[in-house]
Amino acid sequence: MKIDASFVARLQKRDKAAFAQLYKQTVDQLYRYMAGRYSIPKQEMLDIISDFYVKLWRVLDKYDNRYKFETFFWTVFKNLLKDSFKKKSEIHNSVLIQETNTSDPDALLHSIQWSFQFEAIKKAMQKLDEASYQVVVMRYIEHLEYDEIAELLGMRQDAVRKRISRALAKIKQNLL
Questions:
Q1: CA distances from 151 to 30, 148, 154, 167 (A)
Q2: CB 3.0–4.6 Å: which of 13, 90, 163, 174 could bond 124 by disulfide?
Q3: Residues 56 and 131 in one domain
Q4: Is position 157 within any domain?
């Protein structure tokens, strides 16, 4: 997600079209971020995402233009996520809910295979050290570019690339 200053200014002026555009650009990233990191029922994730956009709308005036909007965006989201977990501690222990059509055996089989693969990848990722886990999430779930990750983490781009490469190799090894 790259957002320029003029777009942020529109957001801060409460431009509903700009906010709708921001929503369209980012909602899938938020969903993938949560689905890749937590085992939460789909409806819970959608509720948290809805709450986030309401909160973001309310706190846009607190954004400081000296910093990247993306950092503000993710900070607000992650803080809301932490607050949600505090309020509903049972979310941590919930099971991933995948809607399937049980009358279609092929769809059910595909769903089971997908869930198994997803869980295996999640377990392999959880074996990574925190720094490696973080760069993989930023790159493949949040879809940040290498330069954005480097800037956010205070690293050089080549160091980010190496860390991601090593993390992917470790994930692959953990899957075997």
A1: 20, 5, 5, 19
A2: 174
A3: no
A4: yes
